[in-house]
Amino acid sequence: MVRQALNGRTEAYGDLVRRWAGRITALCHAKIGRADVAEDMAQETLMRGYRALPSLAEPDKFGSWLCGIAVRACFDWLKAKERSQVTFSALGPDRNPASSIPNRPDACDATEDRAEDLAQLLAAVEELPEKYREVLIHYYYDDVTYSDLAQMLGVSTATINMRLTKARALLRERFGKSVRR
Predict the structure, then answer these.
(1) Backbone torsions φ then ψ of 178, nearest 5 degrees
(2) Which CATH number, 1.20.1250.20, 1.10.443.10, 1.10.1740.10, 1.10.3720.10, labels domain 2-84?
(3) What is the pLDDT of residue 93?
(4) How far apart are the C-alpha atoms of 126 and 107, rounded to whole Å?
(5) Is the model's pLDDT at 38 over the cut of 50?
(6) For 14, phi and psi rounded to 5 degrees?
(7) Of 156, 152, 154, 160, whose CA–CA distance to 66 is shortest?
(8) Which end of the chain is more exposed for a tag (fewer CB within 10 A), N or C?
(9) Dihedral of the alpha carbons of 75, 76, 80, 81, in degrees to the nearest 10
């Protein structure tokens, strides 16, 4: 498909996008630590990849090449964010939107509880150190195998196992209950 895309068949790049979009999104989420930005960064990566496709010297290494583009796109976003982002808490309590949400007595609904639990879990995952967050997101978010993760990150499968085990232990410690697949 890479060779076909290089020869001008744009539909082939669409096939590559469908194949790699999930992994790239997971990688971006792991690098940035924010699910709300991961899809934008993945789209940016795929567009950069399309524009830079003629520079790909080894078509067989498309996946690792695209992952490198994703890492650079995330790094660019993080650098820009550091220069321009102001947190709501820095604005003071009277201007923080979270402080203006009234307490709702009907918030015991099971759907809302599940959404709250999920939000807490995502926040906890985003607080994990990058090396643990990265493998956890790839493994669960995109169903990447241990061996694929090891190849993608340039480490052994034993290291992937250790990082997943540690990530689960950190989450278990945070929530005080079993965290499993």
Answers:
(1) -70, 130
(2) 1.10.1740.10
(3) 52
(4) 25
(5) yes
(6) -60, -40
(7) 152
(8) C
(9) -40
What does the pLDDT look like over 122-139, one tens digit per residue? 788 888 888 888 888 888
Instruction: Find, among 147, 68, 62, the residue nearest to 139 by Cα.
Output: 147
Look at 3-12, 103-112, 125-134 and tell me which has the smallest mean pLDDT.
103-112
CATH top-level class for 107-175? mainly alpha
Which of helix, strand or coil describes residue 74? helix
Q: What is the pLDDT of residue 181?
A: 47
Question: In this structure, what token pair is assigned to residue 108?
Answer: 């015991």
Enter the DSSP assignment of 100: G
> SS3 for 32?
helix
| Residue length of the chain | 181
Q: What are the residue ranges spanned by the domains of the chain?
A: 2-84, 107-175
Q: Count how many Cα atoms sit within 13 Å of the Cα of residue 88 in the half-sphere of its side chain.
A: 8
pTM of the model: 0.50
Report d(CA 40, CA 38) in Å as an integer.
Answer: 5
**Alpha carbons 122 and 118: distance in angstroms, whole number:** 6
